[in-house]
Amino acid sequence: MAVAAHCAAAGCCRRICRDKAGCTAETEGARIVFQYVRSVIFITQMYIAMPLFGLAFAPWAYFSRKGAYAACKSYSRYVFWTAGWMVGMRCEVRGTPPDGEALVAAKHQSFLDIMMIFTALPSAKFIMKREILRTPVIGLYARRLGCVAVDRGKRGKAIEKMVADVHAGRAEPGQLIIYSQGTRVAPGRRMPYKVGSFVLYEQLSQPCVPVATNVGVLWPKRGMLRKPGVAVVEFLPVIEPGMARDDFMELLETSVEERSDALMAEAGFKGLPNA
């Protein structure tokens, strides 16, 4: 009789465990669907707001670089704010952004790190494809910010002209942002660092500030799902001018990759090597 009672209790426990597991799976599935819906709404309103901000600030931006910065930073802060209450994502900048002339060599994982780095710097500008500068509204802002236009296959000539403009005092002052791997890189993937970072570092004779990030964990390169958590960009210790190429490239890659791995682990990413 005792054995029968024990078996009945064990069977009941197994059923309870199965029921709990099923409920947990259903709850998790519902949570993901709800987060996905919130993400779609967030992304939709974000892209609707972009031209509205652009057009609203255009008269000021047309005549003033200050107006262009005000527009871009206002829009970025609007995105950070809506990300916080719509999808539960908080944006955080760590470290010390440079306030003078500098080369900012950043890890690039998604559109979000562009906005976060740009907003953290007083006078940011980018290297971008020339086609972008030809678009009606974005082109206006890019030119006002002092962004450097690059033709396909002619990056070297663009860099030479930019360096000459800097030395001649024709270039807009500020912090030049370059993505050292040349493209967005998903969390967990490894891609080589391009030597263009060193070419700029050497020829501009400016300090280089590496930037690490984990934003791709919460705001991925592809897909619509935006995850709750803390998205971080972190400005790392300055690399002063004068380093040799191999030493510079090794220090840049090591510092950015190691710190980015730590930030991604902090955000809960499990796909890192040796994780």
From TrEMBL:
Q: Which Pfam families match?
A: Acyltransferase
Domain of life according to the entry: Bacteria
The pathway this protein participates in, as annotated, is: Lipid metabolism
Q: Which GO terms describe its biological process?
A: phosphatidic acid biosynthetic process
Which stretches make up the Phospholipid/glycerol acyltransferase domain? 102-216
> Example GO molecular function term?
1-acylglycerol-3-phosphate O-acyltransferase activity
InterPro entries, alphabetized: Plipid/glycerol_acylTrfase
Key words, A-Z: Acyltransferase, Membrane, Transferase, Transmembrane, Transmembrane helix
Q: Which source organism does the UniProt entry give?
A: Roseobacter ponti
What name does UniProt use for this protein? 1-acyl-sn-glycerol-3-phosphate acyltransferase
Q: Which residues cross the membrane?
A: 40-63
